[in-house]
Specification:
- By secondary structure, this protein is an alpha+beta fold.
- It has a 5-stranded antiparallel sheet. The chain has a two-stranded antiparallel ribbon with strand order 4-6.
- A hairpin with a 5-residue loop joins β2 and β3.
- Helix content is about 25%, strand content about 25%.
């Protein structure tokens, strides 16, 4: 606020890329440990920064892309509440494990969130404006993609050290969430609804 600009305005690229960046950032923020704080208006991907003398940019909801960001934030809240892996060990190192944190070439991050009762979610976030085909992420064990229920247990490649891996459909500025060690399906379709 006060000259720092809106979250939407800080993102690089054209409007599509800015909105994709906002969606990826929210998915990363909700999946990463810690409390979920967002300044008012960010959930709409509003154009201007918040101003205490004016209303937030409600008019941006006349555009479908901004409504999708608002819907995504609501879906993220519901998904967060429904999956203890995202909050039950928020302040315990046992609740988080990096899978990849050093893939600067692809501008991606991946990690596990682990609940107190063993629910494990693998999160893959692509912050680049590029689509990566056959992007491999090593998993500790097999799992299922929540949206499709498709198994994530392709053969191990020489570059992966874990017993199984998944080929994440790492499209431009997307996030994927995968249930690991579970046959449970989730209704959350982040990478299909908000790409």
């Amino acid at each position: 606020m006060y000259g720092k600009g809106s979250l939407f305005g800080k993102m690089p690229g054209d409007d599509w890329q800015k909105l994709a960046g906002v969606r990826s950032m929210f998915a990363y923020q909700w999946a990463h440990p810690g409390k979920k704080l967002s300044f008012m208006g960010n959930e709409l991907a509003q154009w201007g920064e918040w101003d205490h003398d004016a209303s937030i940019d409600w008019d941006c909801l006349n555009w479908q892309e901004h409504r999708q960001v608002q819907t995504m934030v609501a879906d993220l809240n519901a998904f967060y509440k429904a999956h203890p892996a995202l909050w039950s060990q928020d302040f315990d190192p046992a609740g988080f494990q990096w899978l990849t944190s050093d893939d600067a070439d692809h501008n991606t991050l991946s990690f596990l969130r682990i609940g107190t009762k063993g629910e494990t979610l693998a999160v893959v976030v692509n912050f680049s404006g590029e689509a990566w085909s056959d992007y491999q992420v090593a998993l500790p064990t097999g799992g299922r993609r929540p949206a499709s229920g498709r198994k994530c247990s392709p053969p191990m490649t020489p570059s992966t050290a874990a017993p199984t891996s998944t080929t994440a459909p790492s499209k431009r500025s997307r996030a994927n969430i995968i249930h690991v060690r579970s046959r449970r399906r989730s209704p959350f379709r982040l990478w299909e609804l908000y790409s």
